[in-house]
């Protein structure tokens, strides 16, 4: 099919695809593939310049899960395997290199793990409000951040009950520790998958559109609470208190109880209790679903197969779903009709604009001649 894509698309999607591929694709994807092409050059491979290049290459392993994300039909060479978990670490070396960190976690029963990345940071006031809200719930705070973020956010204070870590830490293993009751992060797919794998609820504060999308999906699934930091009261103390009330309900339902600001266990009854059971069930269900995908093992199997046979999986590259398209769609006639109508309309509009000054000039000349005759 000369439209290049066999995945079912609407007429509008196929029209946009047709126009984009013949106007801006090479320029846009040269920028998108810049890092990939750098690696390919080091391996002596030719550059990718079109999106279709991915469809003619070996299969693309996608470490995502439709358990949380919206299910969609993927290009034939893209294999959705699930999250690349669990992360393999040498536990003996980890325990030796981070002995003080593990001792601190063991010494505190309720720990909130905060990691908001090393590129973007909260405003200083928002970071202080977040820390104070967590401490007010009798939670100890383990904050993972870069040196520059630490100096910017907490330049003159070391809050009691807070531990800052600026180097590498075994995040995935920390989330699995029974004393770590929740994760506070920006909603990136990897962090969400790691928290869900360990059946820990998340308080998500997104910075980027992808993070906001994943945080919203997790919130709709009943395993996270999402805050909009750009809203007028996004990270105000009362907003954080309400969010932590909801999040501690998730944590309490999954681990046997959360602590309120007075140190007593959170209790609920009636409809609230039913909601907590529902949330606990959602955390457990999603955790089991992610584990059952065996993303790491499936990735290793595909890589082993590719190395063993040294050839792309040809059956993944065959055009598919063509039988579901009409004859006109298979040959792109409907797209050509739309493009022709748009081009014709644009041409007529251009001719009208070009003729408008001529009409104005003739009208003015006619009026001048009429005045002379009068």
Topology readout:
Layout: H1 11-21, H2 25-32, H3 34-42, H4 52-55, E1 60-62, E2 78-80, H5 91-97, H6 99-106, E3 111-115, H7 124-136, E4 140-144, H8 147-153, E5 162-165, H9 171-176, E6 180-185, H10 189-197, E7 202-204, H11 209-220, E8 224-226, H12 237-255, H13 271-292, H14 295-309, H15 327-330, H16 333-373
Parallel strand pairs: 1-2, 3-4, 3-6, 4-5, 6-7, 7-8
Helix pairs in contact: 1-16, 7-12, 12-13
Note the overall shape. extended
Rg result: 29 Å
The overall average pLDDT, rounded, is 79
Considering DSSP H and I runs of 4 or more, what fraction of the residues is helical? 40-55%
- The count of β-strands is 8
Give the strand order, joined by hyphens, for the main sheet.
5-4-3-6-7-8
**Strand content range:** 5-15%
What structural category characterises the helix and strand content?
alpha/beta
Order of helices and strands: HHHHEEHHEHEHEHEHEHEHHHHH
The largest β sheet comes out as:
6 strands, parallel
**Total of helices:** 16
Unreliable residue runs: 1-6, 253-273, 312-323
N-end to C-end Cα span: 69 Å
């Amino acid at each position: 099919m000369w439209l290049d894509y066999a995945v079912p698309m609407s007429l509008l999607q196929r029209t946009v695809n047709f126009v984009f591929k013949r106007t801006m694709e090479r320029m846009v994807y040269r920028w998108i593939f810049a890092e990939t092409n750098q690696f390919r050059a080091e391996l002596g491979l030719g550059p990718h310049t079109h999106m279709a290049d991915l469809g003619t290459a070996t299969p693309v392993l996608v470490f995502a899960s439709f358990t949380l994300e919206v299910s969609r039909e993927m290009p034939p060479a893209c294999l959705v395997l699930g999250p690349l978990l669990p992360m393999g670490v040498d536990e003996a070396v980890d325990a030796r290199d981070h002995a003080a960190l593990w001792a601190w976690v063991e010494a505190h029963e309720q720990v909130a793990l905060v990691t908001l990345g090393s590129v973007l940071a909260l405003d200083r006031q928002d970071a202080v409000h977040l820390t104070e809200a967590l401490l007010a719930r009798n939670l100890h705070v383990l904050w993972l951040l870069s040196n520059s973020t630490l100096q910017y956010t907490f330049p003159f204070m070391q809050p009691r009950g807070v531990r800052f870590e600026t180097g590498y830490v075994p995040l995935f293993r920390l989330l699995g520790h029974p004393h770590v009751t929740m994760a506070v992060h920006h909603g990136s797919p990897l962090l969400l998958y790691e928290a869900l794998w360990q059946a820990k609820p998340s308080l998500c504060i997104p910075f980027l559109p992808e993070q906001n999308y994943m945080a919203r999906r997790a919130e709709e699934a009943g395993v996270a609470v999402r805050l909009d930091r750009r809203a007028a009261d996004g990270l105000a103390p009362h907003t954080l208190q309400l969010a932590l009330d909801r999040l501690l309900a998730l944590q309490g339902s999954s681990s046997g109880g959360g602590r309120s600001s007075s140190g007593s266990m959170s209790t609920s009854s009636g409809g609230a209790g039913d909601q907590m059971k529902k949330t606990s069930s959602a955390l457990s269900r999603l955790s089991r679903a992610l584990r059952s995908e065996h993303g790491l093992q499936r990735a290793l199997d595909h890589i082993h197969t590719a190395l063993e046979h040294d050839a792309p999986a040809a059956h993944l590259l065959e055009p598919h779903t063509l039988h579901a398209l009409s004859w006109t769609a298979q040959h792109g006639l409907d797209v050509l009709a739309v493009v022709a109508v748009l081009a014709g309309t644009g041409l007529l509009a251009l001719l009208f604009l070009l003729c408008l000054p001529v009409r104005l000039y003739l009208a003015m000349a006619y009026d001048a001649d009429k005045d002379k005759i009068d």
